[in-house]
Design goal:
Layout (H helix, E strand, L loop, with lengths): L3 E2 L23 E8 L6 H20 L7 E8 L4 H13 L4 E3 L4 H14 L3 E2 L16 E2 L5 H14 L5 E6 L2 H15 L7 E5 L7 H8 L5 E5 L2 H13 L5 E4 L5 H8 L7 E4 L10 H13 L7 H20 L5 H9 L4 E2 L4 E2 L12 E6 L5 E2 L1
Parallel strand pairs: 2-3, 2-4, 4-5, 5-6, 7-8, 7-9, 9-10, 10-11
Antiparallel strand pairs: 1-14, 11-14, 12-13, 14-15
Helix pairs in contact: 1-10, 2-3, 4-5, 7-8, 10-11
Length: 376
């Protein structure tokens, strides 16, 4: 069942030439701003993304910094709520942080985007695969991960190759859920299919009873979930209680380890698409490097997909910053990031250009086991 999908070459919209503010990093410290959920039902997404990034940035700082500069990641909690994220973004811009990094969630990033484009401040590595943040193209927005279209295409391909074509979708009732639903619909349409049932849940809630009723009654062979770990876990438990025994898939944003922790033994066989390499075993060089970095970090740092995404985002951002030279401007950072091509991070390939700000289209599948772990 587990398949690996090769990088897909795609054309991106042409980049308009945008003059960026001349704000430069301070000579001894470079401050980044991150708005994410650090409390509430989606908290583990922000916490783990941040921890992974800080593992790398702390390592850089401990070795003397980058060109003598220490990197500080300043955080504000938005609780996975768009209005709070917008206010946080306005505050970070007012505080003149050098760039925005590692935001978490589609609705929150969408709320921040107009401010980002107006201020022309680099916005790097958002934890979302929504197309609305990629098209239209923005000169200052850079994505590490593959899109939800890439993830849902792999999921639908995997299911239909097994002869499962009665597919339902359980989705969060906001821009994230719609992005995932649209991805499933697009993939099914190429096969002259459409979802057999739909069910929704409101963001930051676990009110799934109606969605379970709407979906299970149509007897789908598989269900694709587009929500965060708390609501997805609640749906899985209630669907199983209602007698549903079919396949259940999630996209990466669910928070794989958080979902496994929520479900424990009830998670056996649940599938999740992934956009970064498997972080639990040293199968490839970047996984070995990440696991060693987590071990050295100590404390409560543990390996998981969300943390690894933060770690990789910090690695790639730092490479762009290195290429920007000493005392870099925002404009130099953008140019430095755009120069990263055919950059192999030990088995994870990164490619940017002036016309394409999506670094990777890597997608894979993982599965939860009966003992609350994640297999590959």
């Amino acid at each position: 069942m587990i398949q690996r999908r090769a990088l897909i070459q795609g054309a991106a919209a042409a980049a308009a030439s945008v003059a960026l503010p001349a704000l430069r990093a301070a000579e001894t410290k470079l401050v980044l701003g991150q708005s994410a959920a650090f409390s509430g039902p989606a908290a583990q997404l922000g916490i783990q993304m941040n921890k992974g990034a800080k593992i790398w940035f702390d390592q850089v700082n401990a070795s003397g910094g980058l060109n003598g500069m220490q990197i500080e990641l300043r955080t504000l909690d938005d609780g996975y709520e768009p209005d709070r994220c917008k206010a946080n973004t306005a505050q970070l811009i007012k505080d003149e942080v050098f760039a925005l990094f590692g935001y978490v969630g589609t609705p929150t990033c969408v709320a921040a985007l107009p401010l980002v484009n107006e201020a022309k401040i680099p916005f790097f590595g958002p934890f979302t695969g929504a197309e609305v943040l990629r098209d239209p193209f923005s000169k200052v927005v850079f994505h590490l991960r593959a899109s939800y279209f890439d993830e849902t295409a792999l999921i639908v391909k995997n299911l239909t190759s097994l002869g499962l074509d009665k597919i339902a979708v359980f989705y969060q009732n906001d821009s994230y859920g719609m992005a995932g639903l649209t991805g499933v619909q697009r993939a099914l349409k190429t096969l002259n299919l459409e979802p057999v049932a739909l069910g929704t849940v409101e963001r930051n809630t676990v009110n799934v009873a109606q969605a379970v009723k709407d979906i299970v009654s149509k007897q789908p062979q598989a269900i694709v979930q587009i929500s965060a770990y708390k609501s997805c876990a609640a749906f899985i438990r209630e669907a199983r209680k209602a007698g549903y025994g079919g396949q259940i898939y999630n996209v990466s944003f669910v928070g794989t380890q958080a979902l496994a922790d929520e479900l424990k033994g009830d998670g056996r066989g649940i599938m999740i698409s992934q956009v970064v390499p498997y972080p639990y075993t040293p199968a490839i060089p970047i996984s070995r490097e990440y696991l060693e970095a987590v071990r050295k970090a100590g404390g409560d740092a543990t390996p998981n997909y969300s943390s690894m995404e933060g770690y990789l985002a910090a690695r790639v951002f730092t490479e762009g910053l290195r290429r920007a030279g000493r005392n870099p401007s925002r404009d130099a950072l953008v140019s430095g990031l755009e120069s990263i091509a055919n950059f192999n991070l030990g088995g994870f390939n990164v490619n940017f250009s002036a016309r394409d700000h999506v670094a990777s289209r890597f997608v894979d599948l993982s599965m939860l086991t009966g003992d609350g772990k994640v297999s590959h």
